[in-house]
Amino acid sequence: EIEGIHSRTDFDLRQHQQFSGKNMQYFDAETQEKYIPFVVETSAGCDRNVLAVLCDAYDEEIDEKGETRVVLRFKPSLAPVKLGIFPLVKKDGMPETAHRIEADLRKHFRVFYDEAGAVGRRYRRQDEQGTPFCTTVDGQTAEDGTVTVRERDTMAQIRIAADQLLPYLRDQLG
């Protein structure tokens, strides 16, 4: 139930009139009649809407090996974290470059830095959180200044210049 709508008829106002002694009748000048109005009570809240968004976004995919991939497919503009940032390994200046990217983009979006475990597992953790994009700093980044950007829903990967991440994300997030 996202929103409750309840017809209370004239019960609430009739009870109020009875116990307060206050006249709750309405006079309709057109029909020249007095009556106690019916009340329609609605109930909606943020928690119900958030639950609906979570239920709609939740997805499980089973690959050819029978492994399950859990994904929160939030619309990218609704995703709490917009970008996961990963150095491929914890050496060769990759963490430092990834931290610079993190510091630059944190001014504009909520981002998440992760260097723990295999990069595939890091992608999966972000998929489960609903992060729409991940970027990986790797050996090629030091050579040409490009990074890999992976899209959550299709798992497609592209290479773009690290200094183009902000305009790319703004374009993708609408």
The count of DSSP E runs of length 2 or more, i.e. the number of strands, is 11
Q: What's the rounded overall pLDDT mean?
A: 95
Order of the strands making up the biggest sheet: 8-7-9-10-11
Helix content: 25-40%
Order of helices and strands: EHEEEHEEEHEHEHEEH
In angstroms, what is the radius of gyration?
A: 27 Å
Features:
alpha+beta, single chain, 174 residues, five-stranded mixed sheet, 11 strands
Explain the overall architecture.
There is one protein chain. It contains six helices and eleven strands. By secondary structure, it is α+β, with helices and mostly antiparallel strands.
Brief description of this entry?
The chain has 174 residues and is of the alpha+beta class.
Indicate the topology:
Layout: E1 3-7, H1 11-20, E2 26-28, E3 33-35, E4 40-44, H2 46-57, E5 58-62, E6 68-72, E7 83-87, H3 94-106, E8 111-113, H4 119-129, E9 133-137, H5 139-144, E10 146-151, E11 157-161, H6 165-173
Parallel strand pairs: 7-8, 7-9
Antiparallel strand pairs: 1-4, 2-3, 5-6, 9-10, 10-11
